[in-house]
Amino acid sequence: MRPVPRWALLSSGCAPVLLVGGWTIAAIQQGPGYDPVTQTISVLGAHGAAGFWVMTGALLGLGLCHLLTAWGLRAAALAGRVALGSGGAVALVVALLPVPSSGGSLVHGSVVAVGFTLLAVWPVLAADRGGTAPWGLRPVPSITVTILMGVGAGWFLIEMQRQGAPGDAERFVTCVQSLWPLVVVASCLCHRCDDEPSR
Predict the structure, then answer these.
(1) What whole-number distance in Å separates Cα of residue 151 and Cα of residue 84?
(2) Residue 197's pLDDT is what?
């Protein structure tokens, strides 16, 4: 197994902190008019929003974190690393293509859908079918987390259709997507530590 550098723990660990911290601070700046249950994260990064720069900065940081993590995650299959890195690149594009201050945006929505898909499939594409793979790169956890993301996406679409709680659903999915690279990197580093005494 190719080693994963320790700095990948920092890049993967910063991703969920930037995402959650970004939407939390942006929501505070937006004030009581913003409802995190019924409104999406994109509203916080819309043109003219009080937290526009905070949310835009958080998304840019998230994208860079995913790109760095994909570069350092050498133990993962190449297809998975490409998907994770591409998901990071799409996060950069999402930050640069915010929704307008009122109404939706087909371009923004399409880019978000591409990014979600890449970040949902990267665990399966990164999986190592060898028996000695780190836990986070084994097929069962990888397939399970991809299914979990798919269920979360279905929940989000249902909530959008019924005008229910799409904000909650989106936050659930994006939290899973931002945390999984950290889990994989940590499992690779722990796996390497377990192997070292036997050498």
Answers:
(1) 19
(2) 45
- DSSP state at residue 98: P
Instruction: Report d(CA 18, CA 55) in Å as an integer.
Output: 9
Please name which of 135, 121, 120 lies closest in space to residue 177, comparing C-alpha atoms. Answer: 120
- Tokens linked to 62: 């998230």
Specify the DSSP class assigned to residue 100. Answer: P
pLDDT < 70 stretches in the chain: 1, 103, 192-199
Closest CA to 191 of 76, 65, 77, 66: 76
Neighbours of 186 (CB within 10 A): 18
**Cα–Cα distance between 80 and 116 in angstroms, integer?**
14
Q: What is the DSSP letter of 83?
A: H
Taking CA atoms, 132 is separated from 4, 66, 123, 163, 189, in Å, by: 15, 25, 17, 46, 14
